[in-house]
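Section 3.1: Structural characterization of target chains.
Under the original work plan, the team committed to producing a structural model for every single-chain target entering the pipeline before any wet-lab resources were allocated. The record below documents one such target. The sequence was received from the expression subgroup and is listed exactly as submitted; it comprises 387 residues.
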Amino acid sequence: MNPALWWDATARFLQTVHFGWIVAAWFALATPVFLWLWRRKQKAVAATAITGKHKTNRFAFRVVLCGSLLAVSWAALTVALMDPKYDTVEQKRSYKAAEVVFMFDVSGSMYGTDVRSKELAALVDTWQKEQYDRLVAKKRRFPLLYPNEIPPPFKRPDGTPPDAVRRIDAGEYIMWHVLDQRRPGSTNRYALAYFADSVAWVEILAKDPEVVMESLMLMRPDGVGGGTNFDGPEGAVPACIEQFKNEGQANVRVMVFVSDGDAGISDEAQAEFVKQFTEPQPWHKDKKVKHYVCYLHCGPKDRIPPSIPRLCKAVNPKTPLFEKPARWVGNAQEVQEAIAWLNDLTTSPIEEDPITQEHSLRHLFLIIAFSSLIGFVVSCTAFRETY
């Protein structure tokens, strides 16, 4: 090792070490007394010949060893009393939490099987079977936690093409994988609601996405009908606002509407929603809140409704991330792109702050002190020195 580098590293380390200076001052004042006692002991002990001038100088090594061990023990204990510490600076990584609300359309039209994609059908079929087998295994192991029957995977009716995918299954697949691919260590909070004519909350905002993922599989709303109400008093958008009013804590709030159409959003409701999301409101609680609106269209590509994309464009910032805030998800490629896009959108930004941490060296000097003390006793016994 290069000596210059070693000395530089040692100097930089010593710059981080600090002691209890009151004890250090006592140590400095006590050192002359210790040396004076050492010199007196040198004359008093018959076998002492540190200078090598006495006739017993062949035993000088024994005396030096015993005295040195005693001195090291005393010095190490004194330094341990100083509680020496050294500092290190580390970068603490923290995540800025986001809150994500999934609003899942369960109106009658969502049960249509007009989404045609061989690759998407294979992905959805495999995923549904895996989740069904996993939940059945958990039910066998914990029957009290799963008292109801596990909903089986969707089985295509006779005559249905094998590449047909239900709109509702495509939406479930996307939401489940967004939750499953969240960043490790993320503190995001998630909520799930089903809506048609009105809204039914499945899970309110919580930090455990596993709960939302299981609810998505266990509480499938098969057979629900009704229309697609976005802007009515019991509609999906007002329900999101109420959820954030009651449960919202983060400064970043994302609404993901998964649907195959809507009954329209009036101009008055559009203006009110934009005002609620983009201008300071009492329910923002004096925070600089950012609201993002996303729409995933599970129906035919040529039937994307105009009202929700209009709301997305009015609320979302003009950035490349929101170049396509309303997306069609009718094939495997579009679905994977939508999952990746939502993951980027809901990924908590990393913030790094320098954190200074103190590390105590007391235990190291205690080990040295007691080791030297044991060596002193052993050497005195072996050489029959008296200290």
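Residues 245 and 285 are 9 Å apart (CA to CA).
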